[in-house]
Specification:
heterodimer; A: mainly alpha; Helix Hairpins; minor pseudopilin epsh fold; 2 domains; three-stranded antiparallel beta sheet; globular; B: 208 residues; 8 helices
């Protein structure tokens, strides 16, 4: 996971032209003098069709994700200013904006990586530690999928469902998060599925169960396995 | 037990064009609102059973479903009525809502200042939710702009009018341009309905 995140951090740095990196952070967010930048996708916008249309991918990446990146950078600038002035109240006021936009940047960066076109192995989970963990936790892969789909369908409003790893026990589990709340603290994000309406509406409208069922064809299990290891 | 039903729209699906497309209105009313109605009825039926069997833990676990789906039914029922086709008499703030207009101006200084503040509140919603003009405590109360998350309804105050900021309310037409949707919504606010709610309150929008 660390290696993977460091890699997306490098992509972000290359794009921003920053030269110094003190420490690789979390999914493309780095503590450098540079700013967070929109990471490149590892595939074309149309490459996830028919599960996710090219138009959705383009808007989702270039417009939605980019807005989180820009708004996060703005919030961080304001935070630095407040820290510089020693203005504690102003720092506290900025917390929701940093959680929301920073979370949006984290979540989408992880999401793009955990998707892959079918032609590049999307949808294929090979036998290994992760598939064993899924079988022993849920009984079977199909049972895991239906639990994940039920969790996604149960989100009331905007949010995400994640397959996570509990840092304390090493166990995997399914958790949902509201809005752009990121997976932090006790849990590590393995596989995230975006249940915001903008993630599927142009193609599936209110038939979100169809989107939740189609997305399994383009899950990049190699990345999920790496995060789990 | 009487069940809730989808209220008919007070105008045709295409009547709010060009601000809101026919396709959005059809999906929003026939699919989204209908789903809230169906899920509310299911939750209330389960609630009635749990009440009969005195199953308190089942009653508690049903609260969130009732809040979400009941809220969705209330909010959409209020929303359809607080919209009107563009250019209709109800959309003229000065003519249709003299009392409310005066209260808005005395609270925000001008119509434009109010619209600016309301739009900023709508844009500030993080995730799904609604923006409302409310009259605090009852009719002719202090006007406030408030937002509610997901399908939380306004309780305690009078909802003068509401704007749905879920992506399903605008995405097929405006994509990520939320500001464009907000700019358009003023052309279809039903100020006559808003005046009525502000001066006399709202009747139970879900009367069976």
């Amino acid at each position: 996971m660390v290696a993977l995140l460091a890699n997306s951090a490098r992509v972000a740095l290359r794009r921003s032209g920053a030269s110094a990196c003190s420490k690789a952070g979390y999914a493309g967010l780095t503590s450098t003098r540079g700013k967070a930048t929109l990471p490149d996708l590892a595939y074309d916008y149309g490459a996830l069709e028919p599960s996710i249309s090219g138009k959705i991918m383009e808007l989702h990446h270039k417009n939605h994700h980019n807005t989180y990146v820009n708004s996060y950078n703005t919030a961080v600038e304001q935070l630095q200013e407040a820290q510089h002035k020693g203005d504690i109240a102003a720092q506290i006021v900025l917390k929701p904006a940093i959680n929301f936009h920073g979370g949006g940047h984290l979540n989408h960066s992880l999401f793009w990586e955990n998707l892959a076109p079918k032609s590049a192995g999307g949808g294929e989970l090979s036998t290994g530690a992760l598939s064993k963990a899924i079988d022993s936790t849920y009984g079977s892969f199909g049972e895991f999928q239906s639990k994940m789909n039920a969790a996604l369908a149960g989100i009331q409003g905007s949010g995400w469902a994640w397959l996570v790893k509990d840092k304390q026990t090493g166990q995997i589990g399914i958790r949902t998060y509201a809005n752009q709340d990121p997976v932090v603290g006790q849990y590590e994000p393995l596989l995230g599925i975006d249940a915001w309406e903008h993630a599927y509406y142009l193609q599936y409208q209110n038939r979100k169960a169809e989107y939740f069922s189609a997305i399994w064809d383009v899950i990049n299990w190699k990345v999920v396995e790496k995060r789990f290891a | 037990m009487a069940s809730h039903t989808l209220p008919p729209l007070p105008y045709a699906y295409e009547a709010l064009e060009p601000v809101i497309s026919k396709q959005i209105m059809e999906l929003h009313h026939q699919k989204h609102h209908q789903t809230y109605v169906n899920n509310l009825n299911a939750a209330l039926a389960a609630h009635a059973t749990a009440t009969q069997t005195n199953d308190v833990s089942a009653l508690i676990s049903l609260q969130q479903k009732i809040r979400f789906n009941g809220g969705g039914h209330i909010n959409h029922s209020l929303f359809w009525k607080n919209l009107t086709p563009p250019g209709t008499p109800g959309n003229d703030l000065t003519g249709a809502a003299p009392t409310l207009r005066e209260a808005i101006i005395s609270r925000w200084g001008s119509e434009e200042a109010f619209k600016g503040a309301f739009g900023a509140a709508l844009l500030g919603i993080q995730g799904s939710g609604w923006g409302w003009l409310v009259s605090a405590g009852g009719p002719k109360g202090r006007l406030e702009i408030t937002t509610t998350k997901d399908q939380d309804p306004v309780t305690g105050d009078v909802p003068v009018f509401g704007v749905d900021m879920w992506e399903h309310a605008y995405y097929l037409q405006y994509l990520n341009n939320k500001a464009g949707y907000i700019e358009g919504i003023w052309k279809i606010i039903n100020w006559a309905e808003a005046e009525k709610r502000y001066t006399a309150g709202v009747e139970n929008p879900l009367k069976l």
